[in-house]
């Protein structure tokens, strides 16, 4: 709900010609970041990853840029309810987080490399908050699809803290994956379909610009 209100505010200011004076500051991915740990050679590791990093419009747009990613779906994961809808999840009572499910080609991009993109593209030190979006549905969380993914995520998280990348500890939860509920159709490919929308221009586009400055040729051409 807060994101919707922010979008309306940005849209109104855009129409008034004063957007540049109040544009929300995009999270800046850190540069001094640990190298992704090597991925295990086990052939049975799943080629799917599920992450919650705040607004799924943002997270989906980020992973859609990564070479080796074959598909990204926005949705909900980590809750206790047997199903999830945007309205219910925004209410904060279902326990779900806004999340994306990423399918990838392990020959082109490794799971630890996806973890690097995940941790560089949002602020993992703010519990239940990303920018103006506040609530448990916006928590930072890795949903591990296997014991291998969980071990890699825990090890990388510890390396980030040990390197002092952020001024505060990483609060990202690493939990077993249980279920994923795709979001409604109007939330899928949101940035790709709404590039001129106020929220996309003010929040998502600057985030992608900063990500491109860090990852360079590891992302798809614009």
Task: Give structural attributes.
36% helix, two-stranded antiparallel sheet, 8 helices, 222 residues, Peptide Methionine Sulfoxide Reductase, Chain A, alpha+beta, six-stranded mixed β-sheet, 8 strands
N- and C-termini, Cα separation: 30 Å
Number of strands: 8
Order of helices and strands: HHEHEHEHEEEHEEHH
Q: How does the major sheet shape up? A: 6 strands, mixed
List low-pLDDT spans. Answer: 4-25
The CATH architecture of the domain at 45-193 can be given as: 2-Layer Sandwich
Number of helices: 8
* Computed Rg: 17 Å
Estimated share of beta-strand residues: 15-25%
C-alpha geometry: globular
CATH topology name of the domain at 45-193: Peptide Methionine Sulfoxide Reductase, Chain A
Strand order of the largest sheet: 7-6-1-3-2-8
Roughly what is the average pLDDT, rounded to an integer? 85
CATH superfamily of the domain at 45-193: Peptide methionine sulphoxide reductase MsrA
What does this structure look like?
This protein has 222 residues and is α+β, with helices and mostly antiparallel strands. The protein has a domain at 45-193: 2-Layer Sandwich (Peptide Methionine Sulfoxide Reductase, Chain A). The chain has 8 helices and 8 strands; from the N terminus they run ααβαβαβαβββαββαα. The protein has helices at 2-16, 19-22, 56-63, 86-90, 111-120, 147-163, 190-193, 198-215; strands spanning 48-53, 69-77, 97-104, 129-130, 133-134, 140-144, 173-176, 180-182. The protein has a 6-stranded mixed beta sheet with strand order 7-6-1-3-2-8, covered by helices on one side. The chain has a two-stranded antiparallel ribbon with strand order 4-5. Helix 3 runs parallel beside helix 8 (198-215).
